[in-house]
Every structure is written in structure tokens, then in C-alpha cells.
Amino acid sequence: MEREKTIKKSSAISLQQFVSIMAPLIDMEKEAEISASVISGSSRSLDAAQKKGSTILNLKCVDVQTGLMGKTLLEFQSTKGDVLPAHKFGTHDVVILRPNKSDLGSPSLGQGVVYRLKDSSITVAFDDIPEEGLNNPLRLEKVANEVTYRKMKDALIQLSKGIQKGPAADLIPVLFGENPPSVSKKAVSFTPFNSNLDHSQKDAISKALSSKDAFLLHGPPGTGKTTTVVEIILQEVKRGSKILACAASNIAVDNIVERLVCHRVKLVRLGHPARLLPQVLDSALDAQVLRGDNSSLANDIRKEMKALNGKLLKTKDKNAKRDIRKELRTLSKEERKRQQLAVTDVIKNADVVLTTLTGASSQKLENTSFDLVIIDEAAQALEIACWIALLKGSRCILAGDHLQLPPTVQSVEAEKKGLGRTLFERLAGLHGDEVTSMLTVQYRMHERIMGWSSKELYDSKIKAHPSVAGHMLYDLEDVKRTSSTEPTLVLVDIAGCDMEEKKDEEDSTMNEGEAEVAIAHAKRLVQSGVRPSDIGIITPYAAQVVLLRILRSKDDKLKEVEISTVDGFQGREKEAIIISMVRSNSKKEVGFLSDRRRMNVAVTRARRQCCLICDTETVSSDRFLKRLIEYFEEHGEYLSASEYGNE
User: Fold this and answer.
1) pLDDT digit string (tens) for 161-219?
2) How many angstroms separate the most distant Cα atoms in the chain?
3) DSSP code of residue 532
4) I need a surface site. Which of 52, 297, 387, 579 has the fewest CB within 10 A?
């Protein structure tokens, strides 16, 4: 009881306290992101920026396409025509295009969003085609997305005004603990759209439908959280609610769109087309606008614009170029005017609007309020980002798991001062069971893999569904029953094998011996018939990821084995997971391995086998990790790394 009071106390924060604490932390985080991008260091050379992975030099534009709903796609390759250098660009990143030799901070040719990445090319979507300079060598720079911070600041300003008259006027006091949450006295009964729901999912849906302001759906790994969110949306639409459904990442939003599409719900997905999965583009706002009454005219205009863009690249005459640009501007103005009216219609007619949290601040939603705001992956989103969406609705449902990875915060100081504390976690502490329902049946893992996580983090409440409780690697098609595929849990101990950790140039930790053992175990699985694409190797350290990928490249049979950090695997699963814990030192230091949430995610990615490679002496110095090692020793197979020899 005392502990509950302490949690409640630490979760209670007034609206004004929240605003005054968060404002400077957002600035700190923005500075941290800017300093990680190329623009910050005018003293740094471009070569250093390329080595750091935040710029790609010596590019040529090899293709121009007008498509993707009016955006211009430019494809770039290395001027030498070979593989692009190592870089940190990812799809959806904001990038700036500049002449190759121009100074850092010089005027750009344009800003766009990375649309497609291949080994030897990168395609960027631009709103407007750069005026000139595409025929010369170019460079791309990755930049901090300052718009996100501006949107968070705007949400803080709106919050601080109290917005007594806004859609969220009654919700705000509940979320800051001033008013208690209210729930309908009578449990809401419903007829499920999905006939395969389990008892805990049905119970959670019933509670969500009966909540009048706030509800938390707690979904531990593999328990069908998104399935439950989709059912709640369908039930709410049936009741006549207008819903805003959001998540921190585009992938999570697209996941919901994909599952809703087959139910013929009137929905619209907001967002830059370059950031959406191809299979949800039909639901995108731009696509629906183009299907409206003006679609044939829109197509004609786009054909004309494509022809003009092609002409612009070939024309050398300055006057002719100026005339073409003028014509392009007129055409695009005409298209925008017609689209604005169509946009309003599409949003007004939709039952469900889906977007990322920052996308919820779109001008297109300016005068729209919602009966319900649903946030998926809420335990991975900054609280202030959630408020961008929450201010538009009178009720909210947050789905997530605060015992998996938290949001990524770049600024160490901002993290310490509370920027990473999520609304999901705060409300779980503030209102607890009154507003929370946990899903308890998981559909991913063998019960032995699940057992440790369930006991350690979920009060032993999670049960494995019979369809997965006993499934083994050798049950998979073409997989032989061997000493490698028989165990569900494998502990490979590197203690006493002379495999100490090292630091790389960026001060990240790696362990060469452990990396070789991880690759050797993956090889054994492949030799037993496990498909390489069914195997994942997870490690908490970036340097170890690089090292493992270098070793993987030496064996063609392993090229489809996925290697990533814990963060890269969140929300995913593989039949077999190999975890390389890296730390091995005489001081018995474990660093951030002791973060329970990180280890929880790593272990629970595995469906049929989890192999843990570590120095048990070093790792057991942490009490939490010691219990993990003991669980693997008790329920799994123990091997010494020396048994892998020189495979």
C-alpha cells in the first residue's frame, strides 16, 4: 500500500509544473539532435561528416520522376557509379541537397525526405524540384527535423493556456490527477468483429468502451496489442465515434491502417507519401483527393508537369528555363487550390483519421475535433508528443508496455530531468488498475522463453497460448532435430575463454570472440535446416552490430540473418534469436545491460529458441541479470564458448 502511495505521488504533476519542466528540456533535446547532424560543425570538414555518416558526397542525379502524389522523386548515385559509402541515412529522414563543393551552411538546392534506399542509390522526394544545379556533382546532408520540436513547443503553449473551451477541456484535469477518471457503471457488452479474441482481450475492450475519459491498454510482448486496438476502433466506429488514431512511428500507424482496410471502414491516412508503406498508399489523403471529382484533371496537370520537368533538365537557355518554371508554378498553384477543398471533404467524411503524433498538428486537422484519440506504442512516445494529438479529443485510449523500450532521448541531461518519462507510465502510476487492463495471453513464444519475462516483470500473469506453448525449432518445415535445434533456451558462457570486451573509435563496446560464437551458432542452425531469414542476432552495442555484420558477410549462406540492436528489433520477432551481451571485464561492469526493459525486449523477440551468449562472471554481478542467467541454467542447455572451437 505504501509503495502504491509513493508511485502515485511521483506520478502526480500539475499542468503548470509539466509545462515549465518540459519547455527547456525540448530545447536541450533539439540542440542534442542538431549537434549530431552535419550542420552544427562548421569547423568540421565534409570528409569528416561523411565518415560520421551524416553526409554523402560525390553524387549525381540519375533520374527525375513526377509521381507519388505530385512530389518529385530524384534518384542519386555515386559519381563513380559504385556502392554508396557507409552512412546513417534512413527512409523518412529529412535531408538537404547542396552542390558537392559548396561550404557547410551555404544555401541549399532543396530539402526533401528519403523515399528509397539501395546499396548503390538513394531516392529523395521533394515538394518542388530544385531550380538548377542538378547536372553538377551534389551532396546530401541529414538534418535535424526541427519541425517536430516546433510542434511540441506549440502543444505546450496550448496546454499552458488551459484551453478550457477546447475538445480536451475535461480530459486534461484527469490526465494531471486533478479529477478522478470516470467509468460507466455497467460493463459494456459487444459483438466482436474478430471471432478469435481471447478472454483478456475481450475484457480489455469492454473496459475501454466503458471508459469516459482515459484508458490504458497494457500489452506485454506477443499478446496481440494491435489486434485489440483494431477491435476497439471498429467497435467505436459502430457506435458512431469519430476517431483520431496515432502512434509515434509511421510503421505502427501503417500497421493499423493495413488491418482496418479489409473492414471497409471510412478512413484516411495523413502523412508525407514518401513515409508510408506502399500497401497503404491507397488510403493516403493525397490518393483519396486524387480519386475525387477532379482526378482526371489532376492527372492531366501532372502529365504536363512531368513533361515540363523533363524539359527543364534538358534546356540550357536561361530565358526558356525561366518560362518553364513560371508555367510549373502556375500549374502547381492551380492543383493546390483544387486539392484544398477536396482535402476538407475527405477528412469530414472519414470515421477514422490516422497519423503519427507530430502529424496530428497538420493544418488539415485545424478545425476538426474527435470523440476519441487512440495512441498505439504510447510507452515509446514522449509525453509532450502525445499532447499534440490529445488536445483534439475528449477521450483517450493509450496502448503500450512501459516495461519494454522507452522513447529514444538524445540529450543525457534532458533524459535525467524527465523528458523520457512517458504519459503511459505516469498514468499507470497515477490511476493504476482503475484505468488499466493488461493482456495476459501471448501468441509468440515457447512457454520457457516467456517464463522468465512473465515472472520477472509481469507478476507471472502471462500464459502462453496452446498454439505456441510447446513449439520447437525442429517443428518447422525442413528443419532437422539436432543438438542445435533441440533446446529452447541455450546459454553459451564465454567466462574463462579469453574473450574480453574492447572499445571502438566511437567508444562503443565490442567483443570479437563473442561475435564469432554468435555467428558459429547461427551457422549450426542453418546447417540443421533453419532458414537464415528466421534467425536474428541482437546486441545492445552498435560496435558489436558492425563487427557481426562484417563476419556475416564472409559467408553467403548467412546473408539473410538479421543483425541489429535491441532498439532495431522492438515490435518484431524471429523463430531463433541469438543475444550477444558483449560485456566481459575484470571490474564486472555491465553498463546499460542492467536496463530491465532492454533485456525484456531482447529475450522476447524469440519464438522457438533463445540463445544467450555472455560472460556469466561479469554479467552475474548485476542481481537482475544474475536471475536471468540462473533461469537459463535451470531451464536450458549450458555450453562453454570453447565448444564452438574454430567453426
Assistant:
1) 865 678 999 999 999 999 999 888 787 899 999 999 999 999 999 999 999 999 999 99
2) 80
3) G
4) 297
**Which residues contact residue 139 at a Cβ distance below 8 angstroms, ignoring those fewer than 6 apart?**
46, 55, 56, 57, 58, 59, 97, 98, 99, 100
Count of beta carbons in the 10 Å neighbourhood of residue 262: 7
Please give the angle made by the CA atoms of 493, 494 and 497, to the nearest 5 degrees: 135
Q: In what order do the strands lie in the sheet with 436-438?
A: 267-269, 352-356, 243-247, 372-376, 396-400, 214-218, 436-438
State the burial class of residue 486 (Cβ atoms within 10 Å of its Cβ: 0-12, 13-18, 19+): middle
Q: Which helix (H) or strand (E) holds 524?
A: helix 512-527
pLDDT of residue 618: 95
- Spacing of C-alpha 251 from chain mean position: 6
Q: Is the pLDDT of residue 3 over 60?
A: no
Q: What local confidence, expressed as pLDDT, does residue 81 receive?
A: 73
**Do the strands 138-142 and 94-99 form a parallel or antiparallel pair, or are they unpaired?**
antiparallel
Residue type for position 577: I
Between 310 and 511, name the one with better pLDDT: 511
pLDDT for res 9: 46
pTM: 0.84
